[in-house]
Structure formats: structure tokens, C-alpha cells
User: What shape does this take?
Amino acid sequence: MARDPRYDILFEPVKIGPVAARNRFYQVPHCNGMGYRYPMSLAAMRGVKAEGGWAVISTEETEIHHTTDIAPYLEGRIWDDQDLPALQKMTEAVHEHHSLAAIELCYNGHYAANNYSREVGLAPSHQAHAYGEPTSARALDKADLGNLRRWHRNAAIRSKRAGFDIVYVYAGHDLGIFQHFLSRRHNHRTDEYGGSLENRVRLLREVIEDTKEAIGDRCGIAVRLAVDELLGTDGIEHQGEGHDVIAMLAELPDLWDVNVSAWPNDSATARFCEEGFQEPYIKFVKSLTTKPVVGVGRYTSPDSMVRVIKSGIMDMIGAARPSIADPFLPKKIEEGRPDDIRECIGCNICVSGDYSMVPMRCTQNPTMGEEWRRGWHPETIAAKASQERVLIVGAGPAGLEAARALGQRGYEVSLSDANREPGGRVTLEARLPGLTTWGRVRDWRLGQIAKLPNVELYRSSTLTAEYVLAFGSGHVAVATGCHWRNDGVGRTHHAPVPGLAPFATLTPDDVLSGAAASKATRTGPVVIFDDDHYYMGGILAEMFAKMGRPTTLVTPAAEASVWTHKTIEHERIQTRLLELGVTIRAHRKLVCRTADALDIACVFTGRVETIDCRTLITVTSRLPEEALYQALMTRKADWQEAGIKSVTRIGDCAGPGTIAAAVFSGHRYARDLDAPFDPDVVPFKRERIEVTPS
Ligand code: ADP
Ligand code: SF4
Assistant: This one.
């Protein structure tokens, strides 16, 4: 299909110093949980994005020296020449598809606790490390400053040798030391590097000049700058010093990559910020410089992209998450099929991979992180290996993805769901406040399935074992999901909590399906017991508080929705709940329920207290909806006659988890169908550290 001429502007080349990007799609630096530890996985992931049409592909933040070691996090390293072969894998993969490779050099200041190298950290002023052992970074003295500039320069020269086309000077996310120097919060120096803004900008200016002088002949020099920290007058503001820094250095770099800081603000989830949310903060930049400007804002719509270019907000569309959810986003626009774009839902499961120090995963893109180790490609998949038909029971994320991918392989697929509206849990959860975008998990798959004549969707069809046997498909996937428990069993309570059963204890399923309305009292205090710790407990508390019900969130954890530290939402969630008047009772477990009250106990002392409770909602753990699967297993003797070769449970039915896990499970089923399976064999390649036998 031909490209829509309205989008031609997105495919214009952009000059970045001595290099030129072939179009305006720019994958900005992003962490990924691979870093120096999984270089082959990393190179393959970046290479796929270059293949998908992103003109610039950047690394994650890359430590320039062993005194800025951010262990245990897995970021890039360019400490010395030993790191170059790994980085070269990435530049080669990017160049193979005619894109530019960019490296974000980073010195983390007090953010690097040097847990691995055991060096003393360096920062503008004496400052406690932000995490890790309770150690402190030392204020750089003159000799340290000279060293820092040399380390950065050496890292830039190494970057050029590794094949990078663009080299970053990093002053963003409250992580890079050059931002710390700019910041009145972090920089308390009294020498020529502290005090006035002119002084606080000095080091950034010097390092940009050093870098240009060292490698500017062949590499574009980019600066990533946080123009607003969303801290009001306590931080850099786009109408104040953020503006002034750009004005002072306007023409010095070859490209400005501008955003808001810190990372939870820059990568805000869709629950809290919409597409394009950074525009008000960054739109001034282009008026101060002739150099290209890149910004981000979770753009997935080509119309929005054209708008921000034409309205002069930015020259290149920066993307981390949209490029993760769909590495082929630019190609799809170029080929005139923007409807095929797999839009990011803004959930930050990708970030959770990085924060868990494992290769990142993505809710929308099950191939993310699997490009090298499983050889999965986001757009291509092996043709079917047999003529068997496949019946999939359940059209939630797992069933939909399995049907889509099997359909792409060429199998004849029947997908059935008990409900009229497919989507399973995402259809329900997308109704929660701020989670509308989660419906994209369903919508993209339904859109793709509609284009596949070999996939049939049956709505309002509850399948029994009898029906499945009569249907006679070669393979059956049971994707029937799971349900929340109502007995309190979860991470903390390993046996049912006494006293819950006689009273109407609700679960998220009751609330989401509307059953809560008939089961619960409409007035009086609501207590949510959250032992799941992801978004559900917190979001239900938000809902009930907004209804005007006195709401208490009880959790054995230290704070509400504590796992959302991994999706960098916890601050916003906590703030929202507190502002709505939700009472948060941390470090508490359940003891017993009575008609109007609930006994809870401190998880440490066991001290019991009684709180008012008319409606109790437990958010603890989930059980697979496995009745159909078990019924089919008991009828194994009938399979042969029915023509059934395999029955497999997938998604939440196989193991309740995140939506990302369900999509992955469905995709994996589709990839592996008709392939030999040996449960004793590790099903992916590993990046092992070579040990020479002694
Ligand atoms: P997952 O996250 O694993 O995809 P979901 O809970 O989102 O699981 O989706 C499961 C879907 O399966 C739901 O839409 C539900 O209506 C459907 N389902 C459950 N049991 C049956 C059944 N026996 N026949 C058809 N559909 C079913
Ligand atoms: Fe977007 Fe979620 Fe995928 Fe991250 S995990 S890229 S936020 S869909």
C-alpha cells in the first residue's frame, strides 16, 4: 500500500551535525534490563527496531567509568576498551538496517552507589547516595573535575571507535551529573561551578565542547536535558532555568533531546498522563535554537506526530515505549498501514523488567526481549507445520494473541468466548479509572484477526468438554482465565482467614462485573485488603473514595500498591489516594471479620485493632479457571476418536499473572505449536559468562 501523503513529512531526512537521519523517527535512549549483561539480546532488540524503520537507535544510559557503577541495575558500560565488542554488536545491528546508532554516555553522580566497584562516588557536593548501601558521594575537587572531563572525553572517543554516529552528553532524569550541577538542589558549590546559573552551566558547556572537539568531525553531539523537573521552584522549570540553559547553549550541540524529569515523570503511565503530555514543557525549545529538537510523549498516532512537527514543537518524534510496543511503527506508516500499529498502552511493564534487572518485557509486544534468545521477530513467524485445526477457548489477552499468531502462521483457528464482548480481563479492567488504553491489547488483536480469513471468532459461546470433543479440532488451547479468591489467601495468608465466609466478601471480579452492586452495602466504610500489591487494590480504593465512601486500604506492605515501584507509578498512586482521603493502614494483615467491623493486626507485633467495615474487598491472589481443562483431561480416552492431539492451558488459566504474561503465553503457544517439546531442555539461548576450564 502507498504511504498516505499526509505523513510524507515524517519521512524527511534530518541533519544532526555531520550525520543525517533518514527520517524523523528517533528511538531515544531507554533502559531495558539487558545492558552490559546481555549484549547479544540487546543488539538483536536494537537491530529489530532499526529494521522497523527508526532512523536513530540509542543505547540506554551507558556508564563512562567504573566510579559511576549503578549496580545492581543493568545499564550500558563503556569503562574501557573491553566493553567495545559488546557495544559494536549493537552498532553493527543498527547499521545493517541503515539507521544511526546513538550512545547516551552517563556519569550518575550520587545516583551511582558503586555497589560493584566499591569506589567512592563523585557528585557536585557531598551527598548521600540515592540508594544502596548508606554511603555518600564526595564533592568533586579540581582534580576530580579534570578526571571527569577526561573520562567523558575518552568514553566519547571509544564510542566513535565502536561505531556510534551520535554521542550524548546526558543531563536528564535527575540521573546525569551534568543535571546535578545545573540543579540548585544538588549543587551547593561556592567555586566557579556553583552559585549563578552561568557557573552551574559551566561543566555542561565544557563537556559539550570537549566532546565536539574530540569526535565532532564524525559524530553528532546530542544533549539530553530535563527542561522541567515538575518540582516547582525547588527544581528546574521550563519557564525559568530550563529555558535559560537552552538559551545559553542553544547552538552548541548538534541536537537537543528535551524532556521532563525525573524518569517517573518522563515515562508517566497512561493512568496519569495522556499522549503528548510533555508538549507544554518543551515547546519553547525550538524558538531558541536552529538545531533539531527531539521530544517524547508516548506518541503512537501518525496524525499526532505530524501535528507536533508542523506546529514546530519538535523536529523528530522521540519514542521509547512506542518503539518497544511496536518496533515496526515507522515502517507501518511508511507502507500505508498505520492501522497495523500495535499501540503502547502506557502500562510500564517494560520499566518493571529494567527495575527487576531482567530483560524487559512488554504487554503489547510479546517478542520484546526474545529477539535473540528465542529468535522471535515482531512481524514474522514460521508458516504452519501441519494441517491441524486449532480451537481456542477464551478470547482474553492469551486467547486473542494465540489466535492472531496462529492465524498469521496459516492455521485454521476457531476462537470462542463465553461473553459477547471479547477481551476477557482487559475489557473489564479498561473500565477502571485511567486504564482506557489497556483496551488496545484487545483492539489491536481483534483488528488483526479481522484481516485473517482463517480465524473465526465465536462470541457468547460457553464451551463445555462435551462440546470441545464434538468440535473435533486437532489442538485445543484452554485460555479461560482466572478469578480472584475471596478467602484472604495470598502472599501473606496461606490459609483462609476466619470469619470472611459468612459475610459478603467481595473481590475485584465482583466490582468489575457489576456483581458488587447487589452483594455490597451501598453506604458505610469500605475496606480493601491488598495483598497483591500491584495496581488493583489501589485503583479500587481510588474508585470507592471517588464515590464518597469512607475508604481504608489495608496492606501487609509498607505502602499502597507497592509493586508499582517497578512501574514507577507508586508516588503518583500514593499521592492520589492520600489526596482522596483514603486511609492507608500499612504493615497490617487480616485477623477476623464481623458484620460491621474488621480485626486487623500488625505484621510485626501481632497487635490487633478493630476498624469499621461495611464492605470488604479482598485483593489477594487468583485461581485458574481450570474446570474445562480438568474436564478435558479426565476425558483423555476420548481424544483420539475426537481427533484431538493436544489440550494445552495458556495465559491466566496456566498461571495467573500480568496481562503481559498472558499475551506472552498465548504467543508462545502459537510459536511452539507442532514443534518438538522437551520439558527437560531450556527453551532459549543463554548469554553465559565464558569460564576457561582450569
Ligand atoms: P487471559 O488473561 O489468560 O487471556 P482472561 O481472564 O482475560 O484470561 O480471559 C479469559 C476469557 O475466557 C474470558 O473472556 C472468559 O469469558 C472466557 N471463558 C472462560 N471460560 C470459558 C468457556 N468455558 N468457554 C468460552 N469462554 C470461556
Ligand atoms: Fe508500552 Fe506497556 Fe509495552 Fe511498555 S510494556 S512499551 S508501556 S505497552
Summary: The first strand starts at residue 14 and ends at 16. Residues 321, 324-325, 344-350, 362-364 surround iron/sulfur cluster (ligand 2) (CB under 6 Å). The radius of gyration is 27 Å. The chain has a mean pLDDT of 97.
